[in-house]
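Late entry, heme C complex.
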Amino acid sequence: MSGFGRNLRWAMALSVGLAVAGGGAIAKIDAKKAVADRQANFKQIGGAFKAISDQLKSPTPDMAVLEASAAKMASLGGQADAWFPKGTGPSKTYKTAAKPEIWKDAAGFAAAAAALKTETAKLSEAANSGNLDAFKAQVRPVGMACKGCHDKYRVNPA
Ligand code: HEC
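Prediction complete; structure with ligand written out below:
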C-alpha cells in the first residue's frame, strides 16, 4: 500500500472517531435540555389547567381566561409525543419523572399522548364556542387524559 493510501485510511478513521465522540457529547447535552424543556412545557399545561379550574369555581367564569388557557393547553398538548426522544429517560445527569415504560411501550405512550391532543383540542373548541356547559363537560376527559398517562408513564410525586 502506498503512503498516501495509508494516510487516507488514517484520516478517515480519525474523522469517524471524532464524529462519534462529538455525537455522543451533543446527545448528552440535548437530553438534558429536552428534559428541562418538556418539564417547563408540562408546568405550563398544569398552570393553564389550574387557571381553568380556578375560573370554574367562580359563579361567573371569565370566558377569555378559559379560551386562552384552553388554547395554550391544546397547542402544547398536541406536541407532547415529540418531547420524549429516545435517550431522555432516567439518567444520573438530570432528574426526570419519565418512566422507562415510555420507550418500552411506545405504542401505548403514543396513544396516551394522542388522547391529550384530542381532548385538549376539544376543550379549546368548546371554549371558542362560548358554550360554558360544553366546556365544563370537557374538563373531565382532559383530566382523565393527564391521569391516564401519569399513572402509567410518570413516577408520581408522593
Ligand atoms: C402522554 C403522557 C402525558 C400526558 C397525557 C400528560 N402528562 Fe404530565 N407528565 C408526563 C411525564 C412523563 C412527566 C414527567 C416529565 C419529566 O420529568 O421528564 C409529566 C410531568 C408533568 C408535570 C410536572 C412538570 C415538572 O415540573 O417537572 C406536570 C405539572 C404535568 N405533567 C401536568 C400535566 C397535565 C395537567 C396534563 C393534562 C392536561 C398532563 N400532564 C398530561 C406525561 C404526561
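Helices lie at 3-57, 63-77, 101-104, 106-129, 132-153. Will revisit in the morning.
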